[in-house]
Structure formats: C-alpha cells, structure tokens
Amino acid sequence: MQLVSDTAQSYAKNGFHIFSEPIVDNKSVQDALAGMDNVRAGKYDLGRSPEESPWNPGDDVGQLCKIEQPQMADRAIAELIRSPEIGDCVAAATAAQMVQVWWVQLLFKPPVSGNAPAATKVGWHHDWTYWKNFWQDGSELLTAWFALSDVNESSGAMKFVVGSHQWEDVDGGDFYSQQNTPDDFILPPGKSWDEKFALLPPGGMSIHHKLTVHGSGWNFSSVPRRSFAIHLRTEKSASINGRGEDLTRYIDDMDICPIIYGKQVDGAFA
Fold first, then answer.
1. Which CATH number is correct for 2-262, 1.20.58.340, 3.30.1340.30, 2.60.40.1180, 2.60.120.620?
2. Which of 53, 58, 147, 253 is most buried, most CB within 10 Å of its CB?
3. Where are the beta strands (DSSP E) in 8-72?
4. pLDDT tens-digit series, residues 210-220
5. How far is CA 85 from the centre of its chain?
6. How far apart are CA 166 and CA 208, in angstroms?
C-alpha cells in the first residue's frame, strides 16, 4: 500500500512518475524488440500494416522513426502493450477503476552522425495539444513511455518539466521542433522551469499526465534509443463525437485498444 501511495503522491505532485526498475520480464522486452525491427522493415505477422505514419519502411534510417499503432501489425508488440503490469502502475498512480490503451506510437531514435545532427530531437510540448480535438475537457488521459533499450542522458532520454501539469493549457510547444526552448512557453505567475530526466532500463517505464511538458534531445550514444509511447485513458474520459472519430476510432476494438486494468464501467465506454 505504501508503494501505491508514494506513486500516487509523486504523480499528483510532479505530473509524472518514473518506474526505474523493469516492470515486465526480459523475454517480453526481447520479443517486442524483434517486433519493432520487423515493423520497421515492413514485416507484419498479424497480416495488416500500422496506421499511416510519419515514418514508413524505406524512409531515411537516420531520421526519427515514429510509427502509429504498431500493435495492429505485430503480435509481440500487441502482447507487450496489453501487459497488466502497465495497467497496475497506472492504477497505482491515478486510482483508476479502468485503464484502456487507445493509441500507441513506436519511437526509434538513431544515434547522431557527423556535425549536423538529423531532426531527431523531440521538441518541448504537452500531449493535450494534439488530443484536445478528440477528447472532452476533463478527460483523464496519460501516456506510459516504455523503454526497450537503456535510456540515459546521452541516448536522448525524455525530460519532464516538474509540476507543469498544473499550468493548465500553456501555449508554446511542438513535438517536431528542433529549436524550441523554455522561453517559448508563457509560465503562470510564480512558476519555474525545472527539468528532470526519465532514466530507464530496458523494461522500465515512465507515466505522465496529458498536460505535463516534456521533450528529448539527440541520441549521442552508439546505439538506437527504442521505446513505445502507449497512450491511455481511464473511466474518467469521453471522446467528443462518440466512437469512430480520428484518434478515438479504435476504442471499441479490444484487439487494438485493450483494457489493461479493471473492466468496462457502467456497461459502456464513452
């Protein structure tokens, strides 16, 4: 019970929580790594491709690889994202009765090469910027960022801005920006910019609130930085136009968007 309490307090205060020890077994990680390689190579053992994505097989391997809904294409990835351990961690942080995956992104950040690094940084942003057209205000939404490789400062670890989820919907943020800085954000009176790295082993995970500002730098290590961004909702959420609208269009398909903690609430999902 103390672990649950500490996790909930950390998440509520900071807008994120870092699980710095692996939460799943090594086989699950290794299988998902192989699945990631297959999807990047255009090999789909579930017989269908991912969603239309910013990066597709055959694109520049020196650029940031971001593939949407990879669990649609690969069995091992589908198994990883439905791990009950992920749901347990989210429930510990939020006291949720139900946790459902609603979108997944494969992220593969290659090492930099030469004196002019490719556009592999992730600019400072918060997720609500990209979700607000699909979910009702007040929806409880968060992201589990799951590491498949050793994630450290040199490999381009994600950084969170402590307490930024309490700033509400601040302006100034762009996932794809290679140049945005803290000066691009208008902070509420009395608030300061305090960054914290999410340092993770393979199988480790962080979770963050939809309004938590975050980003990451270049990968200066010798190996790719590999992860999944698993976007989640609790029972305290509702899409704007019901089912079938853009980012929420798969929430009735439990193969693509599994419930990983609890159960259906009050007989229906929004």
1. 2.60.120.620
2. 147
3. 16-19, 65-68
4. 999 999 999 99
5. 16
6. 12
